[in-house]
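Schema walk-through. Below, the input block comes first and the output block second. Nothing else is stored per chain. Lengths vary across the set, and this one has 360 residues.
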Amino acid sequence: MQDNSTTNGDDMPSVEEPLTKPVKRTKQKSASLLEIKPKKSSDSAPAPDVRVTQPTEPSPPEANTPSTVSETTVSEKKQEIEIPPGTIFQAVGIIRGNVTFIKEEDKETATIKLTGKEYPLFYAPNKRRAYDALKKEIEVTGETNQRLVVYPRFTHFPGRDQQPNVGFQLVGFDKGREEEDDVPSKELQDLEFKLCGLWQFIPVCRTPCISIFRNFTKERLDHVKQSEPAKKVKFMKASHLPLFWRDAPVQPFRFNPKAPKEEQGKPVFVQIKAKFQPSRNAFEFDSLLGVPLEKPPRFLKVSKDDKATAMAEKRAADKAAGKTSRPPQGKPPFKPKSDFKPNAGGASKEMPKPKPKPQQ
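--- output ---
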């Protein structure tokens, strides 16, 4: 099964050691929100074609270093608190099921079965070692039921009523070793995920999502500056994970095209633990892992110009290959509301007659 969002899961978040940083409270209407002010630095300024700001509308993920905050002395700010570990865009979890490797001609695919449903299992180019190690483990032990560390991969489609394609990108697998404590397989139970991202609605999904973006680093910024528009779009494409969250402390952001810009508001950055529900192909809230933040860690977002350029290039390539991504033009052919077919005796049904017009 192919995922048209990215290639080999390059946009999924990775687990890195988070940094703890001071944060100062701001006077907001809600006491539960914090404002993180980034340090001013000339080397972190984004290029004109790459946005490194908080989004006002949905738009890749992978873990990195959170944004720094303004440095103040204890005498100046006595009520400072430290940001808890994990304040990065992240989506990582644990699944357990029967893994199957299928080889067709020169192509090999893998699937995992969760509560009777099969999901494709992917790997990123830099995570091929984990994929090969899992395959070897199954060949040696003969045990197909494996506990895996994965990133969720959701591909949404334009129709709001159309279900997304769901798969998982392999990060590693749990051999039951006890010497490693600070790993997701020890912190999470089966089907549990750690989700850290923007809480918002997106146009192609009726269920609110946690949006996982590509975290900011100077090295990544330099990389996207030198990349072509199509590669930028793939590299910085976000992952939107549907989440059912009753009694959420903050409402998911919903963009209103009719409202003035100053009244739009912004999505809030949340850090939660959620459980994947195969029956709904979505996540269900379990518990908070940190206080919601009014401003998220810094992240990369592709510009609208690069999106338009990449789309135009794709259409040109499809046209040259004889393909088309556009829906058929023109009106659909006429289709009668009902078909008049012969009855069981072979006689045709009588066509309904129009009602006579009232005489004046």
